[in-house]
Amino acid sequence: MPTLVNYCGDDKHHTGGSLCSMNSNRLFSILDVYNHPCKRSRINDSYSLFSNNKNNPSIEILPDECLYEIFRRLSGGKGRSVAACVSLRWLTLISNLKASEIIVSNKVKVKVNNEFSYDDEQENDGYLTRSLEGKKATDTRLAAIAVGTSARGGLGKLSVRGSDKVTSIGFSAIARGCPNLRVLSLWNVPMIGDESLIEISKCQFLESLDLCHCPLISNIGLISIAKNCPNLSSLTIESCKNIGNKSLQTIARCCPNLQSLTIKDCPNVGDQGVATLFSSSLVLTKVKLQSLDITDLSLAVIGRYGKSITNLALTNLRNVSQKGFWAMGNAGNLESLMSLTVISCCGITDLSLKVIGKGCHVLKHLVLKKCWFLSDKGLVSFARAARFLESLQLEECNRVTQQGILGTLSNQNSKMKSFSVVKCMGVIDLDEKAIDFFEKNQSLHSLTIKNCIGFGNKNLEMIGKLSPNLHNLDLTGLSGITDSGLFDFLKTRTAGLKKINLTDCINLTDKVVVDLVKIHGGTLELLNLGGCRKITDESMAAIGRNCGLLKDLDVSKSGITDSGVSWLCCEGNMRLRVLALSGCMVSNESMLSFEKMGETLVGLNLQMCNLISRSAIESLVVNLWRCDILS
User: Fold this and answer.
1) What is the pTM of this model?
2) Cα angle 426, 432, 437; round to 5
3) What does the alpha-carbon distance between residue 19 and residue 89 come to, in Å, rounded to a whole number?
4) Is the distance from CB of 292 to CB of 317 less than 8 angstroms?
């Protein structure tokens, strides 16, 4: 009989067939023995001991009190797990057993592989993981998990997502059967309320709680968790409209080990709760605050008491002004902050960003998205103040121009290794004479200029001169880049490029690709030419001859045909692992070439290759069984 540990079928249970038989005298003796004060009613259904219904199995005529006494004496969790498989009634009774009600013998002798050993019942340590989604998430399955996992190491992590059929009944079973539960995640479960969290709060070893789109959960449930789970170290609250300041204040008092905090889209959370939490916590390291009704006061408190914070993300804080960000940086106590992300916050200005650069002494990673009041002056001032900055990402900061980019890169003492500029519409081509005012950046290894429609050849050449040691280059969506501009950039390289992404650079042709692989083919590991419509088989031939180290090649939606694919095999030195030909004019003739590359190929994209027949794809799937083929 299968145990409940891996129970995933329909909620159907065995209802027929007798498991044991007994005469009436023996049955009365059992009732006499177990009729003591511990006996209590388990469920409301009544069963007649002397029922004349011959259709009922003999064991089913026992009342719940008798079954309860039998189940609590079963040796080991495995025995209870097997018994729970018999029927829904048995499962319900067993899942209602509390740990304190189970009669445990110190050592139970069991026979395993023809040898006797002892089961000490010390088996519920809590290292198993279970996840229920959609229709599979029901109270019955939670009860089955509670019973089944207790015999296999104990449930440590539980995730329930997208279900309106789970109620407090299921979580009552989890609380009773899984005392060592450490991680609980509830996403989009509208029927879960405070009663469920009150039950879960009985799992006193709970360390991580994730609540997302749980509209019925309020301060009452979260306060119960805070008071009964002192080991709570990670808390995520998202789109829970009834959770507010009162529960955060209780967490501040009762959860001294809280290290990670995420609060998103909770309209009742304000300055009072956030300020109390940060002023009380000494070990909080990772913080994300998004779409909250907080003001400058909260950021000032974070700057004053956030000594242990290493990662901070602030998103869509509409009531926080320049004053709040200035106060956060000026406090000078964010001495451990290494990563800062700010998205859609109008409080990031030239002044506030400069102060943050000076006040966050060990800041290494900065992400700024949709900070519309930031200009070149603030960006350059920050880059010079943040001496340990290694990574800078800008997205939709439209007041930043090419002067800000060049000024940020021009820092001889800079430790910046990665710089990314995405959708910054203020970036347009400059006069080349401006380069005389800037210094080279020797530390920059990765550069991304993506979807900046005004970025052209002159900017690319100037950036190339400022960053001679680049290894990774991403120029996605730059239609202003042509063969001559990219070739001038390639000539300034003192180190070989390893990764190049030229996706949707629609004005590039075979000429520059041939030059590219001749100059950097010996070091190139990744090349993305997707959407470059002017790229043809000539480029594939040059790649096949020069790029012996290339592992990842994407030529989707280009002019590549069967001849180009064959060139990759002709030279015999290619060791491609990933090849993308989506939307290319390749046919069944390329099947032999694909099979030749099959020794190393683990990923092949043939989507929208309409000239390849379905039978050819099926044959390829069989022959390249190690390769993941998209078609």
Assistant:
1) 0.81
2) 90
3) 15
4) yes
CA distance 119 to 104: 10
pLDDT at residue 240 in the model = 95
User: In angstroms, rounded to a whole number, what is the distance separating the alpha carbons of residues 371 and 289?
Assistant: 16
Q: Which of the four pLDDT bands, split at 50, 70 and 90, describes residue 13?
A: very low
Cβ 360 vs Cβ 386: under 8 Å: yes
Please calculate the CA angle 218-219-220 and round it to the nearest 5 degrees: 90
**Tokens standing for residue 340:** 């800062």
CA dihedral sign, ordered 346, 347, 350, 353: negative
Which tokens is 54 given?
Answer: 């011959």
311-315 and 155-161 as β-strands: parallel, antiparallel, unpaired? unpaired
pLDDT digit string, tens, across residues 46-87: 333 334 445 555 666 777 677 766 666 676 666 666 666 667
Please give the structure tokens belonging to residue 346. 């109008």
DSSP label at 239? S
Phi, psi angle pair for 347, to nearest 5°: -75, -10
Q: Which amino acid is at 509?
A: T
Question: What is the C-alpha to C-alpha distance for residues 365 and 374, in angstroms, rounded to an integer?
Answer: 17
* Helix locations, 237-375, DSSP H: 245-254, 271-280, 296-305, 322-330, 350-359
CA distances from 334 to 65, 125, 284, 310 (A): 61, 38, 12, 8
**How far is the C-alpha of 402 from the C-alpha of 396, rounded, in Å?**
14
At residue 192, the 3 state secondary structure works out as: coil
Residues present in the chain in total: 631
Report how far residue 203's alpha carbon sits from residue 501's, in angstroms, rounded to the nearest whole number.
50
Most confident of 139-143, 197-201, 271-275: 271-275
Element (H, E) at 196: helix 194-200
CA distance 436 to 293: 47
Residue 148 has pLDDT above 80, yes or no: no
pLDDT digits (tens, 9 = 90+) for 102-140: 666 544 444 434 443 334 344 445 678 888 898 888 888
The four Cα atoms 99, 104, 107, 112 give a dihedral, to 10 degrees, of -70
pLDDT score at 18: 40
Check residue 112 and give its pLDDT. 39
Residue 248 CA to chain centroid, in angstroms? 24
CA angle centred on 48, ends 45 and 49, rounded to 5°: 130
CB 546 within 8 A of CB 519: no
441 neighbors 411 (Cβ within 8 angstroms): yes
Structure tokens at 208: 């991580």
Q: Is 484 helix (H, G, I), strand (E, B) or coil?
A: helix
Q: Within its chain, how far is the Cα of 490 from the centroid?
A: 37
What residue type is assigned to position 296 of the chain?
A: D
Reduce the DSSP state of residue 570 to 3 states and report it: helix
How far is 542 from 553, CA to CA, in rounded Å?
13
User: Looking at the predicted structure, is the pLDDT value of residue 418 above 80?
Assistant: yes
